[in-house]
TrEMBL record:
Keywords, sorted A to Z: Cytoplasm, GTP-binding, Hydrolase, Nucleotide-binding, Phosphoprotein, Protein biosynthesis
Biased composition annotated in UniProt, kind: Basic and acidic residues: 212-222
Name the UniProt record assigns to this protein: Tr-type G domain-containing protein
Primary subcellular site in the record, as a coarse category: cytoplasm
Keyword Hydrolase: yes
PANTHER family: TRANSLATION FACTOR
Stored PROSITE patterns: G_TR_2 (PS51722)
GO molecular function: GTP binding; GTPase activity
Species name: Pristionchus mayeri
Start and end residues of each stretch annotated as Disordered: 1-40, 142-222
Origin superkingdom: Eukaryota
């Protein structure tokens, strides 16, 4: 049954049966008569007939004063001050209205505005005569038109809707009164900054020194930057922590303390990892989150160890560490199921290897860790080696990769080779991990190039002094010289220089290319303007000029969505991270030769190589790959995945 009534065949007369005697619209006075004394004090409203006329032959419009036509008024806005003159205008207009057949009687009295009109019949003749006399007196007055409102003076600081360049800040300490918004002030610092950059580039270059800052003294080993990467829980921190203990970099008392504290927290197996994971959050979570930096010495090198995080949430920190490295150590977990998770099922082993090659690291050693969990099985080692070797050679592009079986927790085959009675000695006769590290070749340094020192960490910042750690990628830096921090072009004086081991620089106070330097800079710095990724340079024609738009040649990784015009991503270059947009796809090129295959493509799909134009949100301190390799390599990431990597070819002005 329907919930709604059917109104199609309804008899509306039946519906109104209960209202035969319609009482609506009738007042109480129509039914009940009043006494003469009561009716004398009652107000009777004039009633309308069917012709919209008042009883007595008067229309309703005669009681409504005519309003002035807005077109007849002066060209001015009528405000509250002009409204006080409207009463006289209305009265004069009504009094001078032409007579008509429907004009009100001469004895009509106009009540004051806001009051209802009284009954005419009950008014005495004297009151009507007095009202008419008052109306005649007002009508005799001359008509005063509305005066034109004088324009208000426009304040100089808001003329033409422009905000004054000099915004005075409120000195009131009352929280109820907000200071003027300084963000509306036009940014005039850009033109000043451009002039400053032009002055820096046109300044005379500092003459080259006869002695290079990276020349070693007697008995000093050559520097090598080594980064340790791999999937999370591969045992990277434990492996390197135990290696440092065996090399004597950690004393026994400190190591005993770490073992007791880790055992009390229920993480006894993390004792060696605590050598590098020093923060409370890293120790409580059991995961490396930031780059851990330390040094140790081998027979050939003074190794700067960079322990990178393996969790996918900290890939940007891993890129920062890998961008500073000369060689890499990839740690793989030999435990059954663990290796497959990190390598095949979306782990970070593949991504770390691809990032290493994209960042210019060509020397790689693979440490197959946790061999004790598989009883030093040769078969399991061969499975891991064959899978990684094929991937690293064909997809990642590493030409020569060496493998070494180790155990970070047990400390086997790290510094010394295993004994003959060890299970590993039955099938492995190769070198230990440290011996493989000694076989790395230190890359050639750009000692004769312009100064490029990349800031990796800001240790202390005050308005007058700045202490940072920086990797000198090109040239050399010395005490007492004037430098500039790009891209802000902040001037500073170098007050102190120390190398990666913490000792003071060479006898002449310099640090050269390839060294991790601790710099103390003096100058006038604004709060929170110096960040990781800024570059310390020297004035001259070879100085670094920052920019926002660049031409890059990239290789697309295994992406689900092709790269198109307008693709948003994050640009990583050395220690820099900046949002960017692919604004143009120029060509699809051959990976090997760089020959153009297709011009102006619509998209770049997986494993394709192309030339694109990239624009960053802010100016960044990067330059072409030919000028400085470290500042010319880039990596693009989006939605937590690495989508492409390549090099900068040129900067677009």
């Amino acid at each position: 049954m329907s919930r709604h009534r059917n109104f199609q065949n309804m008899n509306y007369d039946d519906e109104r049966d209960d209202y035969e005697d319609d009482e609506y619209g009738r007042s109480y006075e129509d039914e009940v008569s009043m006494s003469p004394s009561t009716s004398e004090f009652m107000y009777r409203r004039p009633r309308l007939n069917t012709h919209n006329q008042l009883v007595g032959g008067t229309t309703l419009n005669d009681f409504i004063p005519e309003e002035a036509d807005p077109d007849d008024l002066p060209n001015d806005v009528v405000d509250d001050e002009d409204l006080f003159q409207m009463d006289d205008v209305q009265v004069s207009t009504i009094s001078h209205a032409p007579p008509s057949s429907t004009a009100p009687p001469s004895g009509l009295f106009f009540p004051p505005p806001g009051l209802p009109p009284p009954s005419i019949a009950n008014l005495p003749a004297e009151s009507i005569a007095a009202a008419n006399a008052e109306l005649a007196e007002k009508a005799a007055k001359p008509f005063t038109p509305l005066r034109a409102k004088e324009p208000k003076p426009v304040l100089p600081n808001v003329s033409n809707l422009r905000v004054s360049e000099k915004v005075q800040r409120s000195t009131s300490k009352s929280p109820s009164r907000a200071a003027p918004a300084a963000t509306l002030t036009p940014n005039t610092s850009s033109s000043h900054r451009l002039q400053q950059l032009a002055a820096i580039s046109s300044a005379p270059s500092t003459p080259k020194r006869t002695r290079k800052g990276n020349e070693r003294g007697a008995g000093e080993r050559e520097s090598l930057n080594l980064v340790v990467v791999g999937h999370v829980d591969a045992g990277k921190s434990t492996l390197m922590g135990h290696l440092l203990c065996q090399l004597g970099c950690v004393d026994q008392r400190t190591m005993h303390k770490y073992k007791q504290e880790s055992a009390r927290s229920g993480k006894a197996s993390f004792a060696f990892a605590w050598v590098l994971d020093e923060t409370e959050e890293e120790r409580s979570r059991g995961v490396t989150m930031d780059i851990a930096r330390t040094t140790f010495e081998t027979d050939r090198y003074r190794v700067v160890l960079l322990d990178a995080p393996g969790h996918k949430d900290f890939i940007p920190n891993m890129i920062t560490g890998a961008s500073q490295a000369d060689a890499a150590l990839l740690v793989a977990n030999a435990t059954r199921g663990e290796f497959e998770t990190g390598f095949e099922n979306g782990g970070q082993t593949r991504e770390h290897a691809m990032l290493l090659r994209a960042l210019g690291v060509s020397q790689l050693v693979v440490a197959v860790n946790k061999m004790d969990t598989v009883d030093w099985s040769k078969q399991r080692y061969s499975e891991v080696e064959s899978a990684l070797r094929a991937f690293l050679a064909k997809q990642a592009g590493f030409s020569a990769v060496r493998f070494v079986p180790v155990s970070g927790l047990a400390g086997e085959n790290l510094v010394k080779r295993v004994d003959k009675g060890h299970p590993l000695a039955s099938w492995y006769t190769g070198k230990s991990l440290v011996e493989h590290i000694d076989e790395f070749t230190a890359p050639s340094r750009q000692t004769d190039g312009a100064l490029r020192a990349i800031i990796n960490d800001v240790l202390k910042a005050t308005p007058q002094q700045l202490t940072v750690t920086a990797k000198v990628e090109s040239g050399e830096i010395e005490v007492g010289e004037k430098v500039y921090i790009m891209p802000n072009a902040d001037a500073a004086i170098v007050k102190a220089v120390a190398n990666d081991s913490g000792r003071e620089g060479a006898s002449d106070g310099t640090c050269g290319a390839g060294e991790q330097a601790l710099l103390t800079l003096m100058g006038t710095f604004e709060q929170d303007t110096i960040h990781v990724g800024h570059v310390v340079v020297r004035a001259g024609k070879d100085t670094l000029i920052p920019g926002r738009r660049f031409v890059a040649r990239i290789v697309v990784f295994d992406v689900l969505v092709p790269l198109m015009r307008g693709t948003k991503a994050e640009l990583y270059a050395h220690s820099l991270c900046e949002p960017c947009t692919i604004v143009k796809l120029t060509a699809v090129v051959n990976k090997a030769s760089g020959e153009v295959i297709k011009a102006n493509p619509r998209c770049l799909t997986r494993q394709q190589s192309g030339r694109v134009e990239i624009e960053t949100e802010r100016e960044v301190a990067i330059e072409s790959f030919t000028a400085c390799r470290a500042l010319g390599r880039i990596t693009l990431r989006a939605n937590g995945q690495t989508i492409a990597a390549g090099i900068i070819e040129e900067k677009i002005a």
